[in-house]
Predict the structure.
Amino acid sequence: SLPDLDLLHDPEDELLCSSLLDVVQAALGRAPLGSRRCSRLLMPAQLQAQVRTELLRLACSEPCGLRGALLDLCVEHGKACHDVGHIAADPAVVPTFQLTLVLRLDSRLWPKIQGLFASGPAFAPLKLSTGFRVIKKKLYSSEQLLIEEC
C-alpha cells in the first residue's frame, strides 16, 4: 500500500531508479524490432511514472534494494516478445532479484506498423502503451515468481 511505501522510502533507490529509467529509455531508443530495422520507442510520461512506482515497490523488500536488481527489458507485440536489453541496476552489487519488464506497443498503432517488422526504410518513433507487466524472480530463494500486471 502507499503508506507502507512511504515508510520504506529510500532516497538512494529514488536516484538509482531515475538513472535506471534513463538507461531503459536509451535501450528503447536503440531497440531492434526486426531483422534490419531499428525504431525509436517512446515511453510516455504516465508509463514512466507507473514503472518507477512499481520498480521501487518491488525493490523495497529486497536486501540491497533496487541496487540488487537485474532488469530484463522486453517489448511485446501480438504474441511475440522482443528482447530489448539486460540492465544491472548497480553492476558493483551481486544481484539478489531479477525483474522482467514487458512493455507493449500502443495497440491503436498496430495496423500502421505491421510493416515495421519487415525490411525497408525506418518508421517514425513509436509510442508504447501505458499497460505493462513485471515479473519478479528472487535469485537467492526458491520462492515462486511474482507477476504484476499493470
In short: The chain has a mean pLDDT of 80. The beta strands are 41-42, 69-77, 80-88, 97-105, 126-138, 146-149. Residues 18 and 52 are 8 Å apart (CA to CA).
